[in-house]
Amino acid sequence: MAGTDQRFWTALESMPGLCAVASEWKALLGSDYEAARAHLRPDGRLAGTIPCPTNACACCHEVVQHGPDDIVTVCRCEPRECPTKAITPSDLVLYEVDRRGVCDAVARAIDVSPEHAAVSGLPMTWAIGTYAPRAGFRFPIYLTIHAEPDESERVIDALLRREEQPFLVAVPTRGSVRQAAEDGLRRRRGHLLVLSESLLLSPTGGFALRRPMAEVLAPFLALVLPDEKRDGADARVPTFRQNGDHWSVWFDDAETTIKDGVGPRYIALLLANPGQRMHVIDMQLAEAALSGRVDVSSLPVFAGDPDEAGFDVRRTPATSGGPAADRLTVRKCRVRLEEIDQALASAEAGGAPGDALELREEAEQIARYISAVVDLRGRPRPSADDDDRARQSVTKAISRTIDGLSKKHPQLARHLRKHLETGFTCLYHPDPPVAWVTQ
Fold it and tell me: Greater confidence, 188 or 402?
């Protein structure tokens, strides 16, 4: 296996823009050139200057084209040191690094699913995947390529401002980052992954780990993973679970407890349903289930009766009064309509027209009530005041809980402020996703 001289990784930092003619790549890569060709591709342009073809001088020779097959390079040294040399069009083809291909190959080598994406506002920096060493723990990995430590460190500083969780920064060689920057990253429980120290370039252009990933990242994992000897398996994954009159919280390698209340219950609902937008009235309905104030477990769920929050009503009873009560009443009415349909069929079959008439009248009354309290999509018709009161109540309860977490668990408070939206609808949308234990 090639690559022990680290030339591939050094070449990435040595070539501005990751683009050059083949002769430059050959000079930089040496014996690694053939393997590295898997990561080079023509970019569709021809060079206007090239390095001295004979390496006799240090200047870039100007390309002069007299005709399609009459191309020469001219030394611009004063006095001129090299003779004019004929070249072919193929000598002028510019080859760029296939950045996505390199990112994906690195991701596969370190056993993560490739998730290539350029990072907005950060030059020569890409997200390459997410490292998940254990259930419930996901750490973003970024690759940044710069020749100057100042540039690498600006990227690291920007990522530290953006990321609230631990992450990894991959760089080609250690020379592109000063020790002080690496120490600062470690203080925030981040990690510098030096590719030249971790990966080998294979003859086919792939990468292979020099050592097992767990060994390469041992210092990082010691910082970010809790002790496996802790009691309870789910203590090692993000947890927001009620225990009597308190909620047990574990997140980002820190734990705390908070007193039970409507705020924690609203947050638990959102954490249990990431990416699902919930109307505040539906949240009030669902919170009542968690509190145990109302029990509608006997109510059936009807197909075609949309529940805007996406909850199964057998788990989400309503509070008393207002649209939530109408929602439950409508469900009870529909239970009665099904009973009427069955009774009506029996009355008509049994020759009881009087009973059938009474049943039809009752069904008509129920249908008029349902149309008065729900819209065409089957949703309750709350007034604007009802919606706004619910919005204020839910938002205040969630804000109070997050404010309380600021001192007891600042990492979780920052996470919720960043990824939890409130308003007439609420949404928890973490990126990357976080799998919470809430029951």
Answer: 402
